[in-house]
Amino acid sequence: MAHHGLLISSGLRVATAGGTLLAVAAIVFILMRFVPGDPVLNWLGTSYEKADYDRLRALYGLDLPLLQQFMIWFVNLLQGELGYSVLTQLSVSEELWRRLPATLELILLALAVALPLGIGSGIWAAWRYGKMADHAVLTATLLGISLPEFFVGAILMLGLALQWRIFPATGFEPFAWSTEHFSHMVLPALALGLPRAAVICRLMRGSLLEVFGRPYVRASLAKGLSRKMTLFSHGIRNALIPVVTVIGLQVGYLVAGAVVVEKLFVIPGVGAYGLNAVTARDYPSVQGFILVVAAIFLIANLIVDLLYLWLDPRIRTSAGGASR
Amino acid sequence: MAGSANPDLCGGGIAVSTPRTGRASTAQRAWQSTKVRYSCLLILVLLLLTLGAGWLSPYPYDEIDAAATFGAPGQRYLIGADALGRDVLSRTLHGGRMSLVVGLLATLVAVLVGVPLGALAGYVGGRIDWLISRVVDLLLPFPVILLAIITKMLLGDGLVSVVVALSLVLTPFFARMARAKSLSVAQLPFIEAAQGSGLGTGRIMWLHVLPHCFQPVLIMATLSVAFAILAEASLSFLGLGLPPPAPSWGGDLQASMSAFQLAPWTVLAPGCAITLAVLAFNFLGDGLRDVFDVGERFL
Hints:
The structure holds two protein chains of two kinds. In chain A, 77% of the residues lie in helices and 0% in strands. By secondary structure, chain A is mainly alpha-helical. In chain A, helix 7 (149-163) crosses helix 10. At the A-B interface, helix 1, helix 6, helix 7, helix 8 and helix 9 of A face helix 6, helix 9, helix 10 and helix 11 of B.
């Protein structure tokens, strides 16, 4: 029964995520039509022939009725085709696909920094509650949540790249299992990961302290388990539940932060593409960018939701899928 | 609810379980905390410095001095000059005005929209609750940057589009918290008593439900000002804020990155200013949480 419930709620969550993505796609398409400014005019510049203008509008299907434009776009979307950039004439999906690995790698490396550091230091601070270590961690994380990613990156760059020349300051090497590649990723991953580690640490500490107040912790101590045994057998797993939920939201900040870090360290990822597209008012590219970011975010949240089902058996009921 | 943990923007869970006390005593209790007093003082200083930037800054923020390109900190330019020879101090003070105004305004809008909506959803329930909750669920996970791009394209470059984007990001957090709070309050006997004595929904909400949201809203509002300042700086850094001639912490820092080694003050001044402002509000939020949130622990 439990496994059956798990399967149903997992299925429900996958369906909800898919539905949300389609809703986002439709909303973005509609909103983009309300954007002031004409992308074709933008591309042609100030001097152009009326015939050229009409030909280009027809080429991009911009002269068709709105509903028809939407249908065409939507059918293409379902085939994984996001249209062509008004600016470069290149396929949006191919370009985004080419740039996706760098962005995903940056996000995963940042998580690899943030999760162990944040959860570890959070446990340590809660364990040493009220002592020096706790105060030190709290002060460090207060600073951590107050620093923007780009300033963390800038300071790391000044110290470790310009002053001591341990890592390269900017630039990018395509993915390979080489020190050349990873040395370029260390500073960006730290810049993106450290502020998230601070957030996760504070959450983990708070959650663990709350768990320490629960009756089952008192019961565990009363039946003679040591403090350390209680921490590992009852404390950490229960404290992780709210933390895992919030990590889903943190991924949203990671995606936004990745755009910032890509700009700072000049990494040719999805973010740089999106920013260029926004400045150029390149509709198809902006639409594609927003969809890819929303997809990364929804998939990450889906993974978190499934993880949550596994961590907390109480919500494995069929109603569990309804809320997100 | 899958998200029963009630996570806030950037800190531990808010679990305010103190009995209701009057607002005057809330303020008195808060003021006894050193954290609260110091952070309030810091925020006051920052507000005076940035809102008074017009009078306090030694030069106009856009006065170009070609002879002083990357001028080092000294007597003429207290903390140096930037690539165009503009005074970094004046630009930092003026940039702060934008950041703080955006942070406070976005939070104000989010509180005024989110809290009544959330409280209504929690207290009335039914279809209204369903509708509000779905909208909140849809908006909640939206990354700031996407909303900022959409509002920038729809509303153009300007303060309004940044404030709208940030309010849209913050509102669902307040709505969700107010909903959870009023849902629990609605179960309490005194609400039944109020209903029995013939009070209307509006009056019960105003007199008995909303006051219960006051403390958690205050904490969350403080933290969300910090979040909004940080987000505004990031958007300006990406070129999604006000366009260049206008001074902004994020934008100025970005513009100076290429000369970081040559003139570090051009990057450090706005960076430190952002950190200080965000720190002040986070510190206040922490202090308020310490005051209001007193739990019991066995381990």
